[in-house]
Design a protein that fits this description.
The complex is a heterodimer of chains A (280) and B (264).
Chain A lengths: L1 H7 L18 E12 L2 E12 L3 E5 L6 H9 L6 E6 L2 E2 L7 E4 L11 H11 L4 H14 L15 H13 L5 E5 L7 H17 L3 E5 L3 H7 L2 E7 L2 E8 L14 H24 L1
Parallel strand pairs in A: 3-8, 3-9, 6-7, 7-8
Antiparallel strand pairs in A: 1-2, 1-4, 4-5, 9-10
Helix pairs in contact in A: 3-4, 3-5, 4-5, 7-8
Chain B lengths: L1 H5 L3 H25 L10 E2 L2 E2 L1 H8 L3 H34 L1 H16 L6 H8 L3 H25 L3 H9 L4 H38 L4 H11 L3 H29 L8
Antiparallel strand pairs in B: 1-2
Classes of the chains: A alpha/beta (280), B mainly alpha (264).
Bound molecules: adenosine-5'-triphosphate and magnesium ion (MG).
The site of magnesium ion has 4 residues of chain A, from helix 2.
C-alpha cells in the first residue's frame, strides 16, 4: 500500500526535511491573542500558538472547552472575536485552499455514496476526471472502505462514516489537516489501524495536522506536541513537547517517555476534572 | 378462508383490490339503472340508459373530445410547469434569505390556505379571457403547496452540511446544486404531489369560469343537456389521470428520498 501511496501522493515543496524536527520548521499556522465569544459566552481567550510545517499538534481538553470552536476558527468557518489566525503569513477570513477538516459529526452528504462523498472536494476543485478516478479508490482503500463505494451513509456504521469523512479530507491532499476527534466513533482495533495509517501517510507527506482528541494515549502517540486547553473561559494551560523518536509505531507505545508524557497529561487534565467537581 | 383474505401475498392483494373495484361497479350499475338517465347514468348501461364507461371508450374516437382533451392538457401542463419551476427555486431562496422569508411568510401562509376559486373573478376582471388568465389560475392553485413544502424542507437542511460545503470552499451556486437541491427535492416533490390534485381543480375551474374550453366546457355542456353519461365519463377521465400523475410523483419522491434510508 505504501508503494502505491508514494506514487500517488506528491510531496509538498519545503516540507521534505521537516520530518526530523518538526517544531523548528517554519511556521505554517500562527494563532495570536485568539478569543471567541458566542454572544455572552466566552469560550476561550488569549490563545497564542504556532504550528510548524509538517508538525502534528494534538489538542486535549475537557468537553465543551472549545476545541471544535478553535478548529472552526482555524478553518475560517467562523470568525474569531479577538486576535487572529494566520496561515502561511496571511490572516484568514474564510476557508482556504490546502486546508481540510475532518468533522466530529462526520458531515457526509447523505444523498451521496461513499465514492461520491470522497470525490466531492476533488470534483469541486475541478480536478481532472482521470485523477479523480485514480485517487478516490486509493483513499477509500486507505481508510479500509473498499467494497462500500456504492453504499449510502445510512448504510454505514458510525466508524465507517467517520473513515469516509477522513478519506474525503485526505483526498484533497491538504497542507493543513484539521481533525476533530476523527477516531472517536471507531472501535479500538480500527482506531489503532487508522492511527498508524495516518502516521504512515504523514511520513510520506508531512503535512501540518491539528488533531483534537479525547484520548490521552492518542494525543501522546500522534502528537509532536500536546496542547492542553483548560479553564473557563479556556486557554492554553500547557504545551507539552512529546519528544518521542520517529517513526511513531506500535513500539512507541512501550517507550518509557510515552508513559511519562501520558501520565503528565493525565494528571494535568484530572486537576481540571476535580476542580469542576468541587464547583458543582 | 379468513387467513387467505388477510394474507399479504401479492395475488391475494390484487384479487381483493379487483373484487372491491368490481363490487363498486356492480352497485353503480344497479343504481344507474334504477334512476332516470337525466339524473344518473350506470357504468356500462344499455337501452335508454347510456353508460359512463361506455361513453368514456367512445370518447377516444371522438375528434372534438380529443381536441378538448388536448386543450386541457396544454393548459394543465403549462400552468403546472410554471408553478414547479418557480415555486421550488423560490422556496429554497426563501430558506436562504432569512429577511425575505420573514417579510413574506405571513402572505405565503395566507395564500396557501386561501380558496383560490375565490380569486377567479379578480383574474377575470384584470386579465379578461384567453389562454393566459386560465394558466394563471392553474399556477395559483399549484404554486403554494409546492412553495410551502419546499420552504419547510429547505429550512431543515442540516447546518453541519452547509458548514462542510463551506469548508470545501463551495460556491453559492454549488451549494444549491450539491446541498440545497438534493436535500430539498423529496420535500418539494411532496408538495408537487399535493399540487397535482389542486391544479386539476384549478384547470376545470378556469375552464368553467373564464373562457370556457377543454374538458371543463365538455362537462358544462353535458350537464346542461342532462347528459349524465358524458359528465361522469369526463369526471372518471380527470380522476384517473389525477391518480396516475400522483402515483408518478410519489415514485419520483421515493426515488429521490432513497438516501434517507430506513429513518424515512
Ligand atoms: N454555534 C454555537 N452557538 C453558541 N454556543 C456554541 C456554539 N457552538 C458551541 N457553543 C458552545 O461553546 C462551547 C464550546 O463548544 P465546542 O463544541 O467548541 O466544545 P468542544 O471542546 O469541541 O467539546 P466536545 O469535546 O464535547 O466536542 C460549548 O459550551 C458550547 O455550548
Ligand atoms: Mg468538539
Amino acid at each position: 500500500m505504501s508503494q502505491a501511496a508514494s506514487n500517488l501522493v506528491h510531496t509538498v515543496s519545503g516540507t521534505g526535511t521537516s520530518a526530523d524536527d518538526p517544531s523548528s520548521a517554519p511556521t505554517r499556522i500562527a494563532i495570536s491573542g485568539a478569543g471567541k465569544k458566542y454572544g455572552e459566552l466566552q469560550v476561550f481567550k488569549d490563545i497564542n500558538l504556532t504550528f510548524g510545517n509538517g508538525e502534528i499538534v494534538t489538542v486535549v481538553g475537557p468537553s465543551g472547552c472549545g476545541k471544535t470552536t478553535l478548529l472552526r476558527c482555524i478553518d475560517g468557518l467562523i470568525p474569531l472575536s479577538e486576535g487572529e489566525v494566520k496561515i502561511e503569513g496571511s490572516p484568514i477570513n474564510g476557508p482556504r485552499e490546502g486546508v481540510a477538516m475532518v468533522f466530529q459529526h462526520f458531515g457526509l452528504f447523505p444523498w451521496k455514496t461513499v465514492y461520491q462523498n470522497v470525490a466531492y472536494g476533488l470534483k469541486l476543485a475541478r480536478h481532472p476526471a482521470a485523477e479523480i478516478k485514480e485517487k478516490v479508490p486509493y483513499f477509500i482503500n486507505l481508510v479500509g472502505l473498499s467494497g462500500f463505494e456504492t453504499a449510502f451513509p445510512y448504510q454505514l456504521s458510525g466508524g465507517m462514516q467517520q473513515r469516509c469523512g477522513l478519506a474525503r479530507a485526505l483526498a484533497m491532499e491538504p497542507h493543513v489537516l484539521l481533525m476533530d476527534e476523527p477516531f472517536a466513533a471507531v472501535d479500538a482495533q480500527t482506531r489503532e489501524i487508522l492511527q498508524f495509517e495516518l502516521l504512515k501517510i504523514w511520513e510520506l507527506r508531512p503535512l501540518t495536522m491539528v488533531f483534537v482528541t479525547h484520548s490521552i494515549e492518542e494525543a501522546v502517540l500522534m502528537g509532536h506536541r500536546v496542547v492542553v486547553l483548560k479553564g473557563r473561559p479556556s486557554g492554553v494551560h500547557e504545551v507539552i513537547d512529546v519528544d518521542l523518536p520517529a517513526p511513531r509505531d506500535r513500539g512507541t507505545l512501550g517507550h518509557p517517555r510515552f508513559t511519562e508524557v501520558r501520565e503528565h497529561v493525565w494528571s494535568t487534565l484530572m486537576d481540571e476534572v476535580r476542580a469542576a467537581e468541587f464547583e458543582v | 378462508m379468513l387467513n387467505l383474505i388477510n394474507s399479504d401475498k401479492r395475488w391475494v392483494r390484487w384479487a381483493t383490490f379487483a373484487a372491491g373495484l368490481l363490487l363498486g361497479l356492480v352497485i353503480w350499475e344497479i343504481v344507474g339503472w334504477s334512476f332516470n338517465p337525466a339524473f344518473m347514468a350506470p357504468f356500462i348501461g344499455g337501452d335508454g340508459h347510456p353508460g359512463a364507461g361506455t361513453r368514456l371508450v367512445a370518447f377516444f374516437g371522438d375528434e372534438e373530445f380529443i381536441d378538448s382533451f388536448a386543450s386541457s392538457a396544454r393548459l394543465f401542463a403549462t400552468g403546472f410547469a410554471i408553478a414547479v419551476v418557480t415555486a421550488i427555486p423560490f422556496g429554497i431562496l426563501l430558506a436562504r434569505l432569512t429577511w425575505l422569508r420573514i417579510s413574506l411568510e405571513s402572505y405565503i401562509l395566507v395564500l396557501y390556505v386561501t380558496p383560490m376559486v375565490a380569486l377567479i373573478p379578480f383574474i377575470l376582471s384584470i386579465m379578461g379571457f384567453g389562454f393566459w388568465p386560465k394558466v394563471l389560475v392553474v399556477v395559483l392553485f399549484a404554486f403554494f403547496p409546492i412553495l410551502y413544502n419546499t420552504l419547510e424542507g429547505a429550512r431543515s437542511v442540516k447546518p453541519e452540511l452547509l458548514e462542510v460545503a463551506r469548508s470545501f470552499r463551495t460556491s453559492e451556486l454549488a451549494i444549491w446544486r450539491d446541498v440545497l437541491i438534493p436535500y430539498t427535492l423529496p420535500f418539494a416533490l411532496t408538495g408537487v404531489r399535493q399540487a397535482l390534485g389542486r391544479a386539476l381543480v384549478g384547470m376545470i375551474a378556469a375552464e368553467f369560469f373564464l373562457s370556457t374550453s377543454g374538458l371543463g366546457e365538455e362537462l358544462m355542456v353535458a350537464s346542461r343537456n342532462f347528459n349524465m353519461a358524458s359528465v361522469l365519463a369526463t369526471i372518471i377521465l380527470v380522476t384517473v389521470i389525477g391518480v396516475i400523475l400522483m402515483r408518478l410523483a410519489q415514485s419520483l419522491e421515493q426515488r429521490f428520498a432513497a438516501w434517507r434510508g430506513i429513518e424515512q
